Amino acid sequence: MFDEFECAVRQVVQHVSFDRDVIVSVFETNIRMIGGLLGGHISAKYINSRHPVRLSWYRDELLVLAHDLAIRLLPAFNTSSGLPLPRVNLRHGIDLTLSKSERERFTCTACAGTLILEWATLSRLTGNYLFEQYADRAMSYLWDRRHRQSNLMGTILNVHSGDWIVRESGIGAGIDSYYEYLFKAYVLLGEKNNDYLTRFQQHYSSIMSYVQQGVAMINVHMHQPYRSTKNHMDALLAFWPGLQVMTGDLKPAIELHEMLYQVVKKHKFLPEAFTTDYRIHWNSHPLRPEFVESTYFLYKATGDPHYLEVGRTILNNLEKHARVPCGYAALSDISTGRHEDRMDSFVLAETFKYLYLLFDSSPKPFIDIDQFLFTTEAHLLPLNLLLFNINDTLREEFDKKTLLSARIYDQRNLSLTERLSDKRAKNNQCPAFDAKFQSHQYKEQLRRNIRGDQDMTETLTTSSIAIEKQTKE
């Protein structure tokens, strides 16, 4: 494992350059590439701190690459709102000869609100406060654009005016990781950033009041929250039970996950979109990780072997229906098993990582996962990041390419119980679950209610028909 990782780091260091005349997605470049480089850098330091002969040649090159790439994304923030434009040219930035109306001016809530973890980490490791400042400003602007009565968000807005273009509110495509990063920003950056937690809590309350309909999660109009806008759900919302586990809200997490599992059992994979009575609405499946992610977190929280069985179902279906000679192929149609000639990076970064962790029974794993936070692409960021202060000295050190391993993996910082305030220690972010969730019978009854209750099935079907009628009207 170490040999392969060290080889991969060498390949990136020797062959990757971002000085290219290419237009990229700010959102995807951040979560996949900057997040991946930061996670690789942190892992390299972690390994070297425990095995000094490993990566002894490494001199923060991945961090330097992440910094360079983030600098190339900064022109996207040249907007009156502070929200980033959706795309930028890595060499030329934004074409300022074009008028605002000629440039891309619409972005999704998730696209603008999924930067703070990576950019705050970059600021804390390099001493350059601008990254965290830009990401925080975008998050604050989005919060200000919520509907003040419902506390719900739309899905697409104008980056210059802040006007909502799509006023549909849910927890799936276009908005999902905004909610994830609100909560995780509080976990990663600590109690001095309580605004993130307060915002998340208000959003969460509204989502559970308006978007949750029975066990289903149905998009609603942000200004008219009792008005449904769709008659189906999308696969991206499958991350929600995992986030609920992190917040300590286990009951709805178990129920929503079980509903999703029934869809998986019926179709082998979670369709890109499906109705409340489990029919396929959009039949492709790019081997997304969200359902596996939630399965892993539920198993971590409950220790219930049921989730190992869920994992085996997922793994067996991947091997049987997605395995091809050169890897694993996305499915363009889960009904026929037809493949696409592609495998997204998240399949390795997330899908198989969460499956590996789900089945990992090592009593003392090399990496203590509990010391880290997963980004939305499952890259590892150290929880002791909250102890880092941004200062000019650190920035000067980084500019000189000084090693930062002592700051990242100072042994005093590895334990969350040390060098933290008493209040912080007493209110540890690890959720405390009600004792009843230790009961297999209680958890099984929750799942049985979802999969076997005829009244529930009738309710879901009736709800689906009603929403279809409402949507047509």
From TrEMBL:
| EC number of the protein | 3.2.1.-
Q: Which InterPro entries does the entry link to?
A: 6hp_glycosidase-like_sf (IPR012341), EDEM1/2/3 (IPR044674), Glyco_hydro_47 (IPR001382), Seven-hairpin_glycosidases (IPR036026)
Q: What is its main location?
A: endoplasmic reticulum
Q: Which domain of life is it from?
A: Eukaryota
Where in or outside the cell it occurs: the entry states: Endoplasmic reticulum
**Which residues are named in the active-site annotation?**
E28 (proton donor), D176, E272 (proton donor), E290
GO BP term, example: carbohydrate metabolic process
GO molecular function terms attached to this record: calcium ion binding; mannosyl-oligosaccharide 1,2-alpha-mannosidase activity
Top-rank EC class of the record's enzyme: hydrolase
Instruction: State the family it belongs to.
Output: Belongs to the glycosyl hydrolase 47 family.
The protein depicted here goes by the name alpha-1,2-Mannosidase
